[in-house]
From TrEMBL, chain A:
GO biological process: oncostatin-M-mediated signaling pathway
Signal peptide (from-to): 1-27
Subcellular location: Membrane
Native organism: Zalophus californianus
Membrane topology: Single-pass type I membrane protein
Name of this protein: Oncostatin-M-specific receptor subunit beta
Gene encoding the protein: OSMR
From TrEMBL, chain B:
Region (Disordered): 1-20
Name this polypeptide is given: Cardiotrophin-1
Role summary: Induces cardiac myocyte hypertrophy in vitro. Binds to and activates the ILST/gp130 receptor.
Keyword Secreted: yes
Keywords of the record: Cytokine, Secreted
Record field: transmembrane: none
Annotated localization: Secreted
Gene Ontology biological process: cell surface receptor signaling pathway; nervous system development
């Protein structure tokens, strides 16, 4: 029993000892406690840097340990930070650890202590904490100057959107110090009787030269300030891409986004690192970088582009095959050979690389209203034949190329122009004539229209006129009229002539236009039909001709009243019996006369129909000059024989004769009319435009009358101008 | 002996005799001072614009402390004899030149993309030296001797200015901005004061 008691007691004692041994605080210090603790201050970064060592480690001994670090502020009991730092400790090693304070270190005292424990699974019996080291005090305020107060942190660099704590430290208490951000008062909190702090949340970027924060005493005799440099947040580079033109240099580009450069911070730098080769380069430019490709080296590239400024780093990655990123240089030496009127051969060269790569080249040809596109495979020189081109036409050609096997990007276009050669005109000129018989011979005026560019195939230099006397089977004349003439006058006798007209350029002659001219036009009398003009011209139709016609021609004058008629014509095919004639020269109030000819198979024009009309009729602007005669006591005669109905602005349909009298009575043959001035008169109507006289009867003797004669048309009558006065004589006067 | 403020009364000081070339020199220097007063005002406006608020705001007025020993014209300046006033003007302008240089160097770092401000500061430094030299020439033509506290050699004065300014810039960007504001303000005050002092010497000017 006693032995058991002794044993029990011993066991209890041992247990107690063990428990004591295992308690957190030992009566004896741990052999591996942190020692030689030193604290360094980095005010600029608001950092405390700790250094310490662990003694009593055997040579080459390594021990996994954990160090618990406590940081207090203002007083040791005010612990603001606790952190466990694990590391493997070697013999004679100096250990380091850093801590960044949100509050500038000058704003308050800080205290640091630490303790350690072995954190090694191999020696679990040693996993207990050592004693705490003594509190190390960090007090920056002692090193400040003699000014009444100070503001911290000085010229700090922060990122936009971050939180910043500002403080002022005053030598005296109480103090009436007020602080301002960009001139606006800030509200703070008292940390200590002589220290106030201001928490700025989510600071915004204001300007590259910083944000001004200052404090002043109540007397205004002291001002202290700082500048907060708020940097834009460094962004990840965008659109990072690399390509090569020649397989010897890679050109990498990216969008750098915002520039974070400030007074306190240079613009961000860019570094390119390639993982397969392990090479790195610092890029000189902020949006591109060149990379030398070693010959016969890797095909795969794994790039990391890193943007870095004082505060932050951002990286993007790119993995690619070099041969899949070929952006060829633009082709060169574009030439055109064997250029004819309709064909051309285009050749060009491409830049070659060490290994021949097949390029796919795209060729485009732009002409007048046409585009031709071709795709061509090329290794060194490209060639493409173009046919079916238009003569005497300028073409714009362009060519670009890309990697045929792994398309990445087209090269830039290379452009070149060329002009096809001329060819002989392809169409006969459109020819017409005007024939005037003058004293036994004919004056024939030939007209022709210039060929279009498509028909001319080159610059027309002259027109050849061959005049063949059919009656005598001989060629009477051969004329060569230089361009740009569009007609000529011929004096011919009454024989039948066949006239050939051709247009000529530097290459050849057009087909001939043939027209038969007879000295006797032999035109039958054709009745003229009236036509009504429309907005876009005159719509004309005619009866189809029995028998063969090769076509019809509509002829008119653009300026029928002018000294030069300016003859115009329109040719239509044999099956066409109507057309719309338009001209910019058509004017309202002008009568246009159209003559429609049929062209026989013998090429003889025959007048078929005549039309006449106004594009727009206008009311007459003046009245005929009227002569009064045969005045009696009961009547008088009016005549206007000189009035021409042909030269009026509309078709004259007749005349109105207005008669005013005091009596106001209208006799039969007339009707009462009220004029625009409300005057009442009698109106006589003459429906025959060719009638140029009128007898006014049933008058009273010795009476005063007034008369007016005015033409009327479908669009109105002439002006109601001044009336002519007449007084009938006494009926007994002789 | 009567002493009318600012007059060239021969009876007041027999060593001063109004000669035609002296008159021309005074007029010329006065015109220069007038022109530089206008430029100094523009410089001050340009300066505050580039420092950001509260610089330029009506309620912001840092203490008007001396800079490298240079203060604003004293309240009693106008009551001093003309030669004494001109001596003080010349000394102040001479001291301002290195200070303006320091401000320009600092602004070249802080506001590198403000070429007009930097140019104005550079011009102001040069013009301060030129006006100071012109005032000294007027003094010499007046026959006035250099009296009062011995002037420091120019290099020593410049060194003192740089040291004071460097201390300010070492204290941070804000103190450097305040220093620049103070220097530009002193420049404006002294150029304006010089214009006034010369104006009183111009024949036909205010007595």
């Amino acid at each position: 029993m006693a032995l058991f008691s002794v044993f029990q007691t011993t066991f209890l004692l041992a247990l107690l000892s063990l428990r004591t041994y295992q308690s957190e605080v030992l009566s004896e210090p741990l052999p591996w406690a942190p020692e030689s603790l030193r604290v360094f201050i980095n005010s600029t970064h608001q950092c405390l840097h700790l250094q310490w060592s662990v003694h009593n480690l055997a040579h080459h001994q390594e021990l996994k340990m954990v160090f618990q670090i406590e940081i207090s502020r203002i007083k040791t009991s005010n612990v603001i930070w606790v952190e466990n730092y694990s590391t493997t400790v070697k013999w004679n090693q100096v250990l380091h650890w850093s801590w960044e304070s949100k509050l500038p270190l000058e704003c308050a005292k800080h205290f640091i202590r630490m303790r350690s424990a072995v954190d090694d699974a191999k020696t679990p019996e040693q996993s207990f904490w050592s004693n705490w080291s003594s509190w190390e005090e960090v007090h920056v305020q002692n090193s400040l100057g003699h000014d009444p107060f100070f503001v911290f942190p000085k010229d700090k660099l922060v990122e936009e959107g971050s939180n910043v704590t500002i403080c002022y430290v005053s030598r005296s208490q109480p103090n009436n110090i007020s602080c301002y951000l960009e001139g606006v008062r800030m509200q703070g909190e008292q940390l200590e009787p002589n220290v106030s702090v201001f928490n700025l949340n989510h600071v915004a970027f204001i300007r590259e030269t910083g944000t001004n924060i200052y404090c002043k005493g109540d007397q205004g005799d002291s001002i202290k300030g700082i500048v907060l440099f708020v940097s834009k947040v460094l962004e990840e580079p965008k659109d990072f891409s690399c390509e090569t033109q020649d397989l010897t240099t890679l050109n990498c580009t990216w969008d750098p986004r915002s520039d974070t450069g400030l007074l306190k911070q240079l613009s961000q730098s860019y570094t390119l690192f390639e993982s397969f080769s392990g090479k790195k380069t610092l890029c000189k430019h902020k949006s591109w970088c060149s990379w030398e490709v070693a010959p016969e080296s890797q095909e795969m590239y794994n790039f990391t582009l890193t943007a870095e400024n004082y505060l932050r780093k951002r990286s993007v990655h790119l993995l690619f095959n070099l041969t899949h990123r070929v952006h060829p240089m633009a082709p060169f030496s574009v030439l055109f050979t064997d250029v004819s009127a309709t064909n051309a051969t285009m050749t060009w060269k491409v830049h070659t690389t060490g290994n021949y790569y097949t390029l796919l080249c795209q060729v485009e040809l732009y002409g007048e209203g046409e585009v031709i596109q071709r795709n061509v495979s090329v290794e060194v020189d490209g060639k493409q034949l173009f046919g079916g081109l238009k003569p005497d036409t300028e073409y714009r050609a362009q060519v670009r190329c890309a990697n045929a096997n792994h398309f990445w990007k087209w090269s830039e276009w290379t452009r070149q122009n060329f002009t096809t050669a001329e060819a002989a005109p392809s169409e006969a000129p459109d020819v017409w004539r005007n024939v005037k018989s003058v004293q036994g011979h004919s004056v024939v005026t030939l007209f022709w229209k210039p060929l279009s560019k498509l028909q001319a195939n080159g610059k027309i230099l002259f027109y050849n006129i061959v005049i063949e006397n059919l009656d005598r089977s001989s060629i009477s004349k051969l004329l060569s009229i230089p361009a740009p003439a569009n007609g000529t006058e011929l004096n011919l006798d009454q024989c039948l002539y066949q006239i050939h007209v051709t247009a000529n350029n530097s290459v050849g002659t057009s087909p001939a236009s043939v027209i038969i001219v007879s000295g006797d036009p032999g035109n039958k009398e054709v009745e003229e039909e009236r036509v009504k003009g429309m907005e876009d011209g005159f719509s004309l139709s005619w009866k189809p001709q029995p028998g063969n016609v090769t076509g019809y021609i509509v002829e008119w004058c653009d300026h029928p009243r002018g000294p030069l008629c300016d003859l115009q014509w329109k040719s239509v095919g044999p099956t066409t019996t109507s057309t719309v004639v338009s001209s910019d020269a058509f004017r309202p109030g002008v009568q246009y006369n159209f003559r429609i000819y049929g062209i026989s198979t013998e090429r003889v024009p025959y007048l078929l129909e005549k039309k006449t009309g106004y594009s727009q009729e206008l009311a007459p602007s003046d009245n005929p000059q009227v002569v009064m005669s045969n005045l009696t006591s009961r009547s008088f005669t009016l005549s206007w024989k000189d009035y021409s109905i042909e030269s009026q602005p509309s078709f004259i349909q007749g005349y109105h004769v207005y008669l005013k009298s005091k009596a106001g009575q209208c006799h039969s043959g007339s009707e009462k009319a009220v004029l625009s001035d409300d005057a009442v008169c009698c109106k006589y109507r003459i429906d025959n435009p060719k009638q140029k006289t009128f007898v006014v009867e049933n008058l009273q003797p010795e009476s005063f009358y007034e008369f007016l004669v005015t033409p009327y048309t479908s669009v109105g009558e002439g002006p109601h101008g001044a009336f002519t006065k007449v007084t009938t004589p006494d009926e007994y006067c002789l | 002996m009567s002493r009318r403020e600012g007059s060239l009364d021969p009876q007041a000081d027999s060593s001063i005799s109004p000669l035609p070339h002296l008159e021309a020199k005074i007029r010329q220097t006065h015109s220069l001072a007038r022109l530089l007063t206008k430029y100094a005002e523009q410089l001050l406006q340009e300066y505050v614009q580039h420092q950001g608020d509260p610089f330029g705001l009506p309620g912001f007025s840092p203490p008007r402390l001396p800079v490298a020993g240079l203060s604003a014209p004293a309240p009693g300046h106008a009551g001093l004899p003309a030669p004494e006033r001109l001596r003080l003007d010349a000394a102040a302008l001479s001291a301002l030149q290195p200070l303006l240089d320091v401000v320009r160097r600092h602004q070249a770092e802080l506001n590198p993309r403000a070429p007009r401000l930097l140019r104005r500061l550079e011009d102001a430094a040069r013009q301060a030296r030129a006006l100071g030299a012109a005032v000294e020439a007027v003094l010499a033509a007046l026959g006035a001797e250099t009296r009062g506290p011995p002037a420091e050699p120019a290099a020593a004065a410049a060194a003192a200015a740089v040291a004071a300014a460097t201390a300010a810039t070492d204290a941070g960007v804000f103190p450097a901005k305040v220093l620049g504001l103070r220097v530009c303000g002193l420049y404006r005050e002294w150029v304006s004061r010089t214009e006034g002092d010369l104006g009183q010497l111009v024949p036909g000017g205010p007595a």
